[in-house]
């Protein structure tokens, strides 16, 4: 299918190649989500239910959304994304109806993935739940998940940074009963992420990505992406005085000077 078709079908164009590090996590995601979406007959033959809900937990910016989009895209599944805070605020008063609509769309367009970002804001632990609205939204969500057939046609992926803040009722069998921890990348993961985000950039031969990966301890994917974009912007700012913006077409010699150096990555 073409990109345009993919757009029309609500599918993101993210491939597994766009994910750095997370090799084991990706393997688990493929087994738990891609396999049942693509081959529900395996689960039928074995007489077991495919997972209905998978919880991804880990710090912000580590690639949870990216993983969900990639598995949808690679499984040719319809992708619907909702954010917890949005459901609670934007659709205030209609949150439950909105949830029912989303599950209906997912069934109609199956195979589908429903991705719920920041689920803890919909379904915090009951002792943290103050409002009646939250309680109603949680029970609507539980009943919608219980209503899924478990034949792999619709899988709900939820993401949270605070795994322990979740209502335990959501984590019972048949609901979000599989969990995958998405960790901060190590040196090797950071290198892969840097390579992904700079793959279309004109890098000078002096750019030492293994060194950048080694010294960027604690950086998550989103930070590394930002680092690459910033380096490109520094390169641009360095050459800006030489650019004649009045020119309709920049001479190739000018474009040839746009090369990102190690210095652009430093500081
Ligand atoms: P949040 O909890 O804030 O929603 P998240 O874990 O869902 O965070 P993403 O939204 O997936 O994080 O990451 C933000 C961006 O950072 C991605 O769109 C991607 O460009 C980049 N990124 C994050 N992790 C990775 C990774 N492992 N490989 C490549 N790029 C990554």
Automatic annotation (TrEMBL):
Domain of life, per lineage: Archaea
Protein name: AAA family ATPase, CDC48 subfamily
Family, as annotated: Belongs to the AAA ATPase family. CDC48 subfamily.
Segments forming domain AAA+ ATPase: 50-186
Annotated gene: cdc48
């Amino acid at each position: 299918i073409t990109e345009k078709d993919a757009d029309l079908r609500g599918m993101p164009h993210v491939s597994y190649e766009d994910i750095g590090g997370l090799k084991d996590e990706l393997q688990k995601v493929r087994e738990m989500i891609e396999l049942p979406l693509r081959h529900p007959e395996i689960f039928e033959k074995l007489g077991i239910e495919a997972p209905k809900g998978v919880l991804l937990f880990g710090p912000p910016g580590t690639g949870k959304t990216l993983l969900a989009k990639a598995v949808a895209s690679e499984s040719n599944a319809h992708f619907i994304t909702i954010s917890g805070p949005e459901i609670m605020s934007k659709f205030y008063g209609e949150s439950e109806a909105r949830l029912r609509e989303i599950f209906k769309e997912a069934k109609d367009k199956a195979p589908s993935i429903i991705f719920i970002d920041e689920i803890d804001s919909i379904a915090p632990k009951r002792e943290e739940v103050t409002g009646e609205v939250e309680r109603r939204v949680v029970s609507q969500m539980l009943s919608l998940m219980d209503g899924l057939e478990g034949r792999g046609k619709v899988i709900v992926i939820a993401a949270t940074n605070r795994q322990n803040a979740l209502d335990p009722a959501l984590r019972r069998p048949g609901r979000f009963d599989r969990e995958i921890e998405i960790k901060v990348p190590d040196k090797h993961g950071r290198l892969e992420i840097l390579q992904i985000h700079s793959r279309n950039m004109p890098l000078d031969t002096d750019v030492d990505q293994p060194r950048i990966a080694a010294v960027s301890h604690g950086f998550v994917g989103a930070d590394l992406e930002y680092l690459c974009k910033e380096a490109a912007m520094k390169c641009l700012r360095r050459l800006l005085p030489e650019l004649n913006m009045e020119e309709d077409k920049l001479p190739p010699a000018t474009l040839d000077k746009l090369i990102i150096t190690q210095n652009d990555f430093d500081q």
